[in-house]
Amino acid sequence: MDALTMKKAAGEFAARYVEPHMLIGIGTGSTAYWFIQALGERVKQGLQIRAVATSKESAQLASALQIPILELNDVDEIVLTVDGADEVDPQLRLIKGGGGALLQEKMVAAASRRLVIVADERKQVQQLGAFPLPVEVIPAGWKHVRRRILEMNCSRVELRGNPQPFVTDHGHYILDCYFGKIEDAHALNISLHQIPGVVETGLFLNLATEAIIARADGSIQIIRRES
Ligand SMILES: O=C[C@H](O)[C@H](O)[C@H](O)COP(=O)(O)O
After folding, report:
1. Which one is catalytic: 57, 87, 105, 136?
2. Does residue 226 lie in a domain region?
3. Is residue 64 located within the same domain as residue 92?
4. Same domain, 87 and 151
5. CA spacing 20 to 30 A to 153: which of 39, 170, 182, 185?
6. Which reactions is this enzyme annotated as catalysing (predicted)?
7. What ipTM score was computed for the predicted complex, to two decimals?
8. 105 an active-site residue?
């Protein structure tokens, strides 16, 4: 199976988790795309649900498929959110934000009872950090934030977007941070949050409850976080 087919398989598998009248969170990216498409198909066949989106892009896609979209502020607990990831470790700690939607994704994840990650096997790692960690920052001070991150044992920090900086849905910039292997993700997350100007990090810790991993041999692996 190639990458696209694996993403499609994981996304479509997750769409089966959605039950009538659920309030769900819909993720962002090329794997979540297939979840949204499959959900749209079920809505077309009469499934009634309501959804909160993790990005403008996903909101637009869902709306085009007649999936009713609500604002995060207008809902209480989200029953189930399905989202992609850039890296998934065996404890279901994640790096997210490759598509720049990490802030809204983390807010939606934190408001969700279940966060199910859809990914292909290439996203599975023993230790987080090969994928550069996205950090969302306030544009007015990004150079100072970059300097502080470089002092934290980080070999390279790149402002995303060239020549124009990439601007997130919430009007911020993204710094892609090359830490290499992250030994203590929890401590790193806390340290990054202590830098003035950091809005959010792409480290999703203790949030994912389950991962649906599509394998190249055509199988689906389900990993559940031990609580
Ligand atoms: O900001 C984007 C998100 O965190 C995505 O869910 C993540 O980058 C994975 O995207 P994809 O499924 O396209 O690899």
Report:
1. 105
2. no
3. yes
4. no
5. 170
6. aldehydo-D-ribose 5-phosphate = D-ribulose 5-phosphate
7. 0.98
8. yes
Write out the residue range of the structural domain in which residue 61 sits. 3-124+205-217
Give the residue from 83, 88, 120, 117 showing the smallest Cα distance to 99.
83
Pocket test for ligand 1, best of 31, 37, 124, 203 (most atoms within 8 A of CB): 31
Residues 162 and 188 in one domain: yes
- Backbone dihedral region for residue 119 (phi beyond 0: left; psi -120 to 50: alpha; all else: beta): beta
Confidence of residue 226 (pLDDT cuts 50, 70, 90): confident
- Confidence band, pLDDT 50/70/90 cuts, at residue 104: very high
Cα end-to-end span (Å), the chain:
32
pLDDT in tens, 141-179: 999 999 999 999 899 999 999 899 999 999 999 999 999
User: Which residues have a Cβ under 8 Å from the Cβ of 162 and sit 6 or more positions away?
Assistant: none
Distance from C-alpha of 157 to C-alpha of 149, rounded to nearest angstrom: 8
pLDDT tens digit string along 116-143?
999 999 999 999 999 999 999 999 999 9
Q: Domain check: are 140 and 38 in the same one? A: no
